[in-house]
Specification:
The chain is built from 2 helices and 5 strands; from the N terminus they run E-E-E-H-H-E-E. It is of the alpha+beta class.
Amino acid sequence: MPRFFFHVTDALGRSADNEGTDLPSVEIAQREAVLLAAGELQCHAERVVESGVWGVQVADESGRTVYDFTASARLAS
């Protein structure tokens, strides 16, 4: 079963996932990334408001990014 790594990025930097998660497919990894984003944004909305950006990048075992979810926020001018 392939292993995927979920790296979280915000204005303060990147938190690398060094352990990874075994999942059956890229499609399931994409779904997990969206669920991770939804949970983080719900619990920690202030991170997006304060930093202006928050994201999770999913990488495969070779380090190649297979999915990128980014949320951004800014005041309208």
